[in-house]
Amino acid sequence: MLERLNRAMEHIEDHLDQAVDVEELARLAATSEYHLRRMFSALAGMPLSEYIRRRRLTLAGAEVLAGRDTLLEIAVRYGYGSGEAFARAFRAMHGIGPGEARRTGAALNSQSRMAFRLTVEGSGSMRYRVVDKTDFTVVGLKVRVPLVHTGPNKAIMEFVRGIDPQTLKRLELLSDQEPEGIVAVCDDLDPSRAEGTELDYYQGVITSVSAYEGSTTLVVPAGAWVVFTTSGPAPHAIQNLWRDVFTEWFPSNPYRTRSGPEILRTRFSPRTGEADAELWLPVEPEGRADVR
Predict the structure, then answer these.
(1) 272 by DSSP, 3-state: which?
(2) CA distances from 134 to 80, 178, 207, 244, 270 (A)
(3) pLDDT of residue 291
(4) pLDDT for res 262
(5) What is the C-alpha separation between 224 and 110, in angstroms, rounded?
(6) CB 80 within 8 Å of CB 73
(7) Contact at 8 Å (CB) between 59 and 75?
(8) How far is residue 276's CA from residue 267's CA, in Å, rounded to a whole number?
(9) For residue 89, with 0-12 CB atoms within 10 Å meaning exposed, 13-18 middle and 19 or more buried, which class applies?
(10) Residue 99 CB neighbour total at 10 angstroms
């Protein structure tokens, strides 16, 4: 896996002055484009598109300071349609415009080349099981929220606080299969999984019921799911579980994610501030085509 990922990283470096074909990167990494984006984001801590942008602006910065080509020539070489667009992107990364940087020889920021190497991590074990589920329905209340990687998601907290407890009790009666009870469901995430991008968040239940008055439904087709469990302080234990799943479990197991919602069943103890959580992710064996 690491060798294939590094082959894709080399391809990025060879094509920074061209349009980088993510489909080709996925082929080199022997996975799907969707899974490559998710894997890269989890391993690198930033979306793939952001890494490519920062690498281009790093090389562009060096050329700006070298002074051999005009700013417009550099802008066009790295994919910017105008000097203005290049200047905005340059300033966003380096904190200074390209013209001023060239005049003053200012210090610029640099995005180092990434390579993935094996380190002595993952000495612990992760508890998981794989479950084949028939098609089911998510029934509940839905809101569009921003993605937050670390710390509380205030938009979700406000949404959940605003739900009538009686509504949740009525919904819970519809739960008739795993994961049981009220669950959190995330769907329609941006492929980049960048901080601040939006997703559909459901507070509801997993059920065979096709509809319920006053609620939103999401029909989920049959497929395989990998189920992880964790316990610890909320929300950090849960966010650490997400990190470990993508940085440790997927690179070590012959599965990849497939299209579908992500489901989290949490039981929180106000007395201790800790939570028991069960994370359900849609998966398929490596080697099968992903339609997403």
Answers:
(1) coil
(2) 47, 11, 11, 27, 35
(3) 39
(4) 94
(5) 42
(6) no
(7) no
(8) 5
(9) buried
(10) 13
Question: Could you identify the residue written with the tokens 């009790």?
Answer: 169
The tokens of 278 are what?
């069960």
Helix (H) or strand (E) holding 275: strand 274-285
Mean pLDDT of each 10-residue bin along the chain, 292 residues long? 84 91 90 83 83 93 90 94 94 93 86 71 64 95 89 89 94 95 93 83 95 92 92 82 80 82 90 87 73 39
Bridging pattern class, strands 216-220 and 223-233? unpaired
Structure tokens given for 255: 């599965």
The token pair at 183 is 């669950």
Looking at residue 285, its pLDDT comes to 84
Give the CA radius of gyration of the chain: 22
End-to-end CA distance of the chain: 21
- Only one residue has tokens 């022997």, namely 30
Half-sphere exposure of 136 (CA within 13 A, CB side): 24
pLDDT given for residue 125 in this prediction: 56
pLDDT at 122: 42
Nearest to 13 by CA among 58, 45, 47, 43: 58
Beta strands in 13-126 (DSSP E): none
CA distance 64 to 197: 31
Q: Exposed, middle or buried: residue 248 (CB in 10 Å: 0-12, 13-18, 19+)?
A: middle
- Distance CA(15)–CA(23), nearest Å, equals 14
Report residue 179 as tokens. Answer: 């994961």
151: left (phi over 0), alpha (psi -120 to 50) or beta: left
Grouping H, G, I as helix, E, B as strand and the rest as coil, residue 256 is: strand
Look at residues 52, 115, 116 and name the one whose alpha carbon lies nearest to residue 247: 116
